[in-house]
Specification:
By secondary structure, this protein is mainly β. Strand 39 (470-477) and strand 40 form a beta hairpin.
Length: 769
């Protein structure tokens, strides 16, 4: 079948199409604003034989009136041609692109579907936008009648709709986007109000945006609303208004007069407020709006209890205009405490993660001293707006926006309001809302309720809102979990390495506890003490002892004891014991205890380093043939004992050493066939790396009886001083004889088991010169 031109049907302002023919549906004419965008609504049909040739690869274009030249639209986008949608949006349209335009479809090489459709759409590009249409153009109403006036403007492009504004705004405004029969759009703004003025001229302004960010000049349309019965005196006041004592008060007020008195309303007019007894409310600081503009809004300062009355507005001019608006008054209610703020919504039930907005509104009795609003806690963003109500009073609205969290559940969100007074004092008031937040279980834990040997009672605890509905218990065995219970409480017999966890579920989700090891119960074992610092410590230094043990359940009581003879003394009751190191510190052990018994550590003896000390048990004894002296010393490291015996024959001397303990040694020197007749001295010298000690044993002329020990360093020093010359050569010979007899080199006598010490070579040794 050959292509047949589309037939124009004059109906519904659309170019329609015949069935089984090439046809296109377009508006006959469409208007655009220069520099803006334009959407051309378009749909088409093809002959049945070409249906199979229509696919998503087909390309749309627009041809001029002669159908040969392409209209170069800027950044044109077209609908899905495979669905026969040829609606096209053109950007940044210019006047060079206006005129008739035919839609053409081209499905590519080798595809027979290539067709330019008729009729065309007449594209008009205007510099100024079209004037809005007001419906009705004029209107006559009665006082108190509800009035609705519509303002409509075409929408050439949905992505850049026009902006409509009313002046004056007498009531509520609603906007709707409407599609016409030719599939173009129009924006309709409806102003609804109650008639009250004798004559009102309403203006609707329209502004279009261009794609470069600029806007068109404003275009206006007007309509006139007349009210023959509205030609009378009237005042618009709030019925009641609240004030805070000591603050200021603003009474919103506007009035109307008869048309014949309009010229009398001039600068000579004054405002007065009178009570029912015609007593004026006098305030030298009173301020009033522009009466020539019928604005009688008045602000009074320092409101007090005596203002608790009903007042009426009066206008008095220096001409015939003198009028008290006695039909309408305002009740002033003065309170010492400010009004409680209003929270919206009053109750809050949300789900965790949900966006939440809470509003706190407080009346503003006086604009010059508005209240301050604060939130506690501040959970998110806060925005404040000053809103005018229908009675023209004001309210301050603070909006708190946040994302609901489980941490907000049943926690008060408080809005605090502070009203300032003219004496700089303040009044405080607050209100709060307690949110109920729904959240899935969290912080699920296993709690031990009771343990009797191998039998354990466990409880599954979880934080959830709404409360947990389902509990499950699992045994965890090497990554394999097996269900062992489905109640809040679990009774279980514990075997070696038993591990369990619980699971809590409500409507919003599931949460699991960590795995809990239920080991077999036993008394403490392997109780041990660790010392810090480890090893040997200096005397009087700080030492820390720690007690540890293997126990299940854990150790509950620690005790420290020291050995005191055959008894033990308690010296501490915590896991750590702090003490000063001393050579006299006795052996210490710790004891651990849990519900199943006690266990003791082994004894710990501190290895305390200290300088040698010769003990009081050192002494001498003898008879007519020999003398024997023993020197006992203690120290850590174990001390070395050395003897000094000037004036005594080395051939008749023997020395034996023995170890008494890790820190104590004894050295015995024996002199046989003693041959001195004058008193002689033997010096015991004990030393280690930390210091030394010494003691002198003085022997008088030998007699046939034992003699006691005589001490004194002063005597030794005196004795050495008197005999130094006579003994200078003899000790050297004696020392040589001793060394030769033993076959050893000269060295200090060491405190070692079963070893004889030789004469030491140190500061006390006699030297040969």
């Amino acid at each position: 079948m050959s292509a047949v031109p589309g037939v124009l049907l004059l109906g519904f302002l659309l170019h329609s199409v015949l069935c089984d023919e090439f046809g296109v549906s377009l508006p006959g004419r469409i208007e655009a604003v220069r520099g803006s965008c334009l959407t051309i609504p378009c749909s088409f049909t093809v002959q049945d034989q070409y249906e199979k040739n229509l696919h998503s690869g087909c390309v749309a274009s627009w041809r001029a009136a002669d159908r040969d030249q392409t209209v170069e639209f800027t950044r044109a986008t077209t609908g899905d041609l495979s669905m026969k949608n040829c609606t096209t949006t053109v950007h940044d349209i210019t006047q060079q692109q206006q005129g008739p335009a035919h839609f053409r479809v081209d499905c590519g090489p080798g595809n027979p579907l290539k067709y330019t459709f008729n009729p065309s759409v007449d594209v008009r590009v205007n510099e100024a936008p079209p004037t809005p249409t007001l419906t009705p153009p004029t209107l006559s109403v009665t006082e108190g009648e509800s009035v609705s006036v519509q303002c409509s403007a075409p929408v050439p492009c949905l992505s850049l709709p026009p902006t409509l504004t009313w002046s004056p705004v007498l009531g509520d405004v609603q906007e709707t986007l409407q599609q016409k029969q030719d599939e173009t759009f129009v924006l309709v703004s409806t102003l609804s109000f109650t008639a009250s003025d004798y004559k009102t001229v309403l203006t609707c302004s329209v502004v279009y945006s261009r794609e470069d960010g600029t806007t068109t000049p404003s275009v206006r349309g007007t309509t006139t609303v007349t009210c023959a019965q509205c030609d009378k005196f009237s005042v618009n006041l709030p019925q009641n208004i609240k004030a805070v004592q000591g603050s200021c008060l603003t009474i919103p007020c506007s009035f109307k007069i008869q048309d014949k008195n309009k010229l009398d309303l001039d600068d000579t007019c004054k405002a007065e407020w009178r009570d029912a007894n015609q007593t004026p409310l006098l305030d030298p600081k009173q301020t009033t709006g522009d009466l020539t503009q019928k604005n009688c809004t008045t602000t009074f300062q320092n409101i007090g209890p005596h203002h608790n009355k009903r007042y009426f507005f009066r206008v008095e001019c220096k001409n015939e205009l003198k009028w008290t608006f006695a039909d309408t008054g305002v009740n002033i209610q003065v309170t010492e405490a400010p009004p409680t703020p209003t929270l919206t919504p009053p109750t809050l039930s949300v789900t965790e993660g949900e966006s939440v907005s809470v509003q706190c509104s407080a009346p503003v009795p006086c604009l010059s001293l508005p209240p301050s609003l604060t939130w506690s806690p501040v959970l998110g963003d806060v925005q404040e707006t000053l809103q005018q109500q229908q009675d023209e009073t004001f309210v301050l609205v603070s909006t708190l926006s946040f994302t609901a969290s489980h941490s907000h559940h049943e926690k008060n969100i408080t809005c605090s309001v502070v009203y300032s007074k003219e004496d700089l004092s303040e009044s405080h008031v607050s209100a709060h809302v307690t949110p109920s937040v729904r959240y899935h279980p969290r912080n699920t834990t296993v709690i031990f309720l009771e343990r009797r040997h191998f039998n354990v009672t466990l409880k599954c605890s979880s934080d959830a809102s709404p409360a947990v509905q389902i509990y499950r218990w699992y045994n965890s065995d090497g990554g394999k979990d097996s269900l062992i219970g489905d109640s809040h409480v679990l009774n279980i017999k514990v075997f070696k390495n038993t591990a369990v966890f619980c699971e809590a579920q409500n409507d919003l989700g599931i949460n699991r506890s960590t795995v809990v090891q239920l080991n077999e119960q036993c008394r403490p074992t392997n109780t041990r003490v660790t010392v810090s610092p480890s090893g040997a410590v200096a005397e009087h230094s700080n030492v820390t002892l720690r007690c540890s043990s293997d126990a299940s359940p854990a150790v509950q009581i620690y005790r420290w004891y020291k050995a005191d003879g055959g008894t033990f003394s308690l010296i501490g009751n915590s896991s750590v014991l702090l003490m000063k190191a001393s050579k006299d510190t006795a052996a210490i052990f710790c004891q651990t205890q849990n519900d199943h018994g006690t266990d003791n550590s082994t004894f710990t003896q501190l290895d305390v380093l200290f300088a040698p000390k010769i003990l009081s048990s050192s002494n001498c004894s003898g008879d007519g043939t020999q003398m024997s002296c023993q020197c006992e010393a203690e120290g850590n490291p174990s001390p070395l004992i050395q003897w000094y015996f000037p004036g005594v024959s080395a051939t008749n001397i023997s020395i034996t050493n023995e170890t008494l303990s890790d820190t104590s040694v004894r050295s015995i020197i024996t002199v046989k066939d003693a041959q001195w007749k004058d008193p002689v001295s033997l010096l015991c010298h004990s030393s280690n790396s930390l210091g030394s000690d010494k003691q002198t044993f003085t022997a008088p002329v030998l007699k046939d009886e034992k003699f006691p020990l005589c001490q004194g360093d002063v005597m030794i020093r005196l004795f050495f001083a008197l005999r130094v010359v006579s003994l200078l050569v003899f000790p050297c010979a004696l020392l040589f004889t001793v060394r030769t007899a033993r076959g050893q080199k000269a060295q200090p006598a060491a405190v070692e088991k079963d070893r004889v010490s030789e004469a030491p070579v140190d500061d006390y040794q006699n030297s040969c010169v």
